[in-house]
Design brief:
about 70 residues, alpha+beta, GMP Synthetase, Chain A, domain 3, iron-sulfur cluster binding, NIF_FeS_clus_asmbl_NifU_C, Conserved domain protein, FSCA_dom_sf, iron ion binding
Length: about 70
């Protein structure tokens, strides 16, 4: 699969979880996909939120891995 296609797949998944982050004045961005590893960045209140790790693991990573098994996180 071409890198652009993989990035697009990840962006589509992020669009599904983004509303939950936006509800708390946060956001997420895909930085890059390299060797099937996904690099993400949190923005807004997500950067300083005490439960950001839990949000990343329980919402973002879980959703990505469920939809895109090729991803290494």
């Amino acid at each position: 699969m071409v890198a652009f296609d993989k990035e697009q797949e990840v962006r589509e998944i992020l669009d599904k979880v983004r509303p939950a982050l936006l509800a708390d004045a946060g956001n997420i961005e895909l930085v890059k996909v390299e060797n099937d590893e996904v690099f993400l960045k949190l923005y807004g209140t997500c950067q300083t939120c005490p439960v950001a790790d839990m949000t990343m693991k329980d919402l973002v990573i879980y959703t990505i891995k469920e939809s895109l098994p090729w991803v290494k996180l």
